[in-house]
Amino acid sequence: MAKNQIKMLNETVRKIPLFAGLSPSQINAVLGVCQLKRLPANTVVCASGTQATEMYILLSGELAVVTGDGTRVATLAPVTTVGEMGVLTRQERKATIETVTDCNLLMIPRMGFEMVLEADLAVQARVYRNLFTSLADKIVQDNVRLRDHLLEKAAQEERVRLFRRRAEMAVDLLVKEAGMNRDQVEARLDDQLRTGEHLRVLIVDDEEEIRGLLRQTLADYDTLEASTGEEALAALRQGGVDLLVTDIRMPGMDGYALLAEVKQEFPELPVVAISGVVSDRDAQEYEFDGFMEKPLDLQGFRQLVGEAVERGS
């Protein structure tokens, strides 16, 4: 490689957490075993279940992480590393990585990388320290997201209990003030519910717990549920749905594929997406009428649904 290329790559590699703290000469040693690769769009970079014989640094373009069932769960932008865990642990790859656009990558073969680590124990210690730090940060972030989700779920369940208690008190008050017995009051309320106009929302998520949480959050809507994209399309073809709320990561037909089918068959139907693995930036590339990351801000989610319904009406 030319000197200007090496200098540019040296600056790029220094930005990557795995190589943080390495000196220019140490980074040059890593670059000495690298190869520049340019791959066209829709090319498999590494496949799930294969041995990790190399890792990659994405210099330009966009990559996608694809599960064994073909679900695209995330996209990767420069500058990031791919496959480093398999190289360092010698485990099989857990997911398939493919190019979304034309990509420039720096390929680091495992054998050459191991030779660099063995030749300089300081590099080896720094790289493994960086790896453990990255893993620890990821665990902390995951725990925070789980904690926030559980706290929001508990708060939502408390709100549901409060609403139920208030409803019971309202029925008791009607019985006392209107001179009707409880059965008469509940019959009148049921009649009002049946004859009133209620918007219908179809909730699509492969996790029953999430569907239940969304159903409770949208208690003043008529809700239908589906656990797959295929089930959702079947429900939509029955008619009467005013809004579709779908998870993006699902087995079989994911949220992106479902959106494409819906826009073709039901172009006027608003579609709101939720996901814990896709960012707002990634979702903006698609024609969703709204998007929110998990764990959900349930009050914000209700507002998002209301706005989507209003725009679609």
Describe what this molecule looks like in 3D.
With 313 residues, this protein is of the alpha/beta class. The chain has 2 domains: 3-119, Jelly Rolls (Sandwich), CATH 2.60.120.10; 198-313, 3-Layer(aba) Sandwich (Rossmann fold), CATH 3.40.50.2300. Helices cover 50% and strands 20% of the residues. It has 11 helices and 13 strands. The protein has helices spanning 3-14, 24-31, 84-89, 110-119, 121-178, 182-195, 208-217, 229-236, 255-265, 280-283, 298-312, and strands spanning 35-39, 44-46, 54-60, 63-66, 72-76, 80-82, 96-99, 103-109, 200-204, 222-226, 243-247, 271-275, 290-293. The strands form 3 sheets. It has a 5-stranded parallel beta sheet, with helices on both faces. A 4-stranded antiparallel beta sheet has the order 1-8-3-6. Helix 1 (3-14) packs across helix 2 (24-31), helix 4 (110-119) packs across helix 5 (121-178) and helix 8 (229-236) packs parallel to helix 9. The protein is elongated and about 90 Å long. The mean pLDDT is 83.
Could you give the topology of this structure?
Elements: H1 3-14, H2 24-31, E1 35-39, E2 44-46, E3 54-60, E4 63-66, E5 72-76, E6 80-82, H3 84-89, E7 96-99, E8 103-109, H4 110-119, H5 121-178, H6 182-195, E9 200-204, H7 208-217, E10 222-226, H8 229-236, E11 243-247, H9 255-265, E12 271-275, H10 280-283, E13 290-293, H11 298-312
Parallel strand pairs: 9-10, 9-11, 11-12, 12-13
Antiparallel strand pairs: 1-8, 2-7, 3-6, 3-8, 4-5, 4-7
Helix pairs in contact: 1-2, 4-5, 8-9
